[in-house]
Design brief:
The N terminus and C terminus are likely disordered. Helix 5 crosses helix 6. This protein is 39% helix and 13% strand. The protein is globular and about 55 Å long. Strands 2-3-4-1-5 form a 5-stranded parallel sheet, sandwiched between helices. The chain has one domain: 3-Layer(aba) Sandwich (Rossmann fold). It is an alpha/beta fold and 231 residues long. The chain contains 9 helices and 5 strands.
């Protein structure tokens, strides 16, 4: 899953019309990573530019020598506990043995690596501590950017763990970004992390954008009201 977001949206920063403030906020996370890490939830309706903004963060992170990992929420996996966490940490499953024994066991239980006694349930707190340990260890040699797209489709336990991790990155060279679609009720609403709300472009900016992408668009089509998007 490394670098998926870079290929997904190759949008030059100069073409992110009307997003200067938002772009500056996201880039600031990348620039200050040597002093502190952090997490940010980028929220907005479908097609409003969340992925384009995240792609810019990833491009800047790549220039700064970050390692980049991505995960994508899948609606059909929302009922599978820890499915999203497994997707994000899959490259590091071979390093779980570095963790303290209880944390290693909890993660191995959560990911189905370890045979467990029927009825035994892994401790979510230990899973969260283990996930934080794995991520911190992965960032020892280079800062790390973790991207979670379509986070509205994350399973609840993964959201719980990633929220825990995101609140404890101040001392780690790690940035965690979530892209969340507005209007879809999900566990991602309870992440408890700083948020950046993307709103529709102002009319003048939207007009410039249309001119740059569809200069021959008939006036009656340009003036058509923006349709409400389905979640």
């Amino acid at each position: 899953m490394r670098g998926v977001i870079l290929a997904a949206v190759g949008v030059p920063a100069s073409l992110l019309f009307g997003r200067d403030e938002e772009l500056a906020r996201v880039r600031a996370l990348i620039e200050r990573v040597s002093d502190r890490g952090g997490a940010l939830v980028i929220r907005g309706e479908a097609g409003i530019g969340k992925s384009a903004l995240i792609a810019q963060a990833a491009l800047r992170a790549k220039e700064r020598g970050f390692s980049i990992l991505t995960a994508i929420g899948v609606q059909s996996e929302t009922r599978f506990a820890f499915a999203a966490l497994h997707q994000l940490l899959h490259p590091f499953l071979g390093t779980l043995e570095k963790l303290p024994g209880a944390q290693c066991r909890a993660l191995e239980m959560a990911f189905g690596i370890l045979d467990v006694v029927p009825g035994e349930v892994p401790d979510v707190f230990l899973i969260a501590l283990g996930a934080l340990g794995v991520i911190a260890d992965a960032a020892v040699n280079a800062p790390l950017l973790l991207v979670v797209e379509d986070a509205q489709w994350l399973d609840g336990p993964s959201c719980e763990v990633l929220g825990f991790v995101g609140r404890r990155l101040d001392m780690e060279p790690v940035i965690l970004l979530f892209g969340v679609r507005e209007g879809v009720s999900s566990p991602a609403d309870e992440l408890g992390l700083p948020e950046l709300q993307l709103t529709p472009l102002e009319e003048a900016t939207a007009s410039v954008l249309l001119s740059s992408r569809a200069a021959d668009l008939p006036p009656e089509v340009r003036a058509r009201p923006r349709r409400t998007r389905c979640p």
